[in-house]
Amino acid sequence: MATEIYIVRHGETMFNQLNKVQGWCDSPLTVKGINDLKVTANALSQVHFDNMYSSDLKRAIDTVHLMKDANQVSEIGKIKKLPEFREVFFGSFEGDDIEETWNEVALAAGIGPQTDVTKIINQVGIYEFREATKKADPRHLAENKKELDERMVRAINVLHDLTKNEKRVLIVSHGDFIKTLAIKYWNQSDGLHDIVFPNNGSVTRGIIRDNGDFEIVDYNVNAEDM
Hints:
Blueprint: E1 3-9, H1 14-18, H2 31-43, E2 51-54, H3 58-70, E3 80-81, H4 98-108, H5 117-124, H6 126-136, H7 145-162, E4 168-173, H8 175-185, E5 203-208, E6 214-221
Parallel strand pairs: 1-4, 2-3, 2-4
Antiparallel strand pairs: 1-5, 5-6
Binding site for substrate: 9-16, 59
Protein name: Phosphoglycerate mutase
GO biological process, one term: negative regulation of glycolytic process
């Protein structure tokens, strides 16, 4: 049985608002973030889900509970938290100013001063961007392409095992992780260049088939438009 996966990006957080790097570090949802999520939750309130899952970071957990509480047609028990669906890890840059961080990454990539992450990725490619982030990190802890790719594959395998008897589930994850999934599994991405960053509260829809193959079929959609 194939399983339909609704992947929701968490709501806006304090670090999003303050323009700080936010990967495995966490910050609370803002009032705007909560209000935007209520719109998503209301739009999905009549969609039946067999289960709901979440990254183990608090901003994702808070988001999934908003989805659960608003849903009128699903009986969801305890939310299972999946660390495999955490945001990309930015190592020593966690919590730093985002423009200063991207400038250091650009320098490590050999392209000179640049604070626009989209321009950096489009110039050097997403894979070199990951390598440059790890190189620029003083402790070299940031995830590179290989580490992130292995975690994505592990995440899909874990979800496949959990959802074998479920027709439709919702999972809350994070912007860069969802974008990276799309680069790998969405047929409209060429896998090399940047694609638009998913909006807070947006829905990306995928299918996990019986054999474990995963495909994204809708990306960064406003839940009201689904």
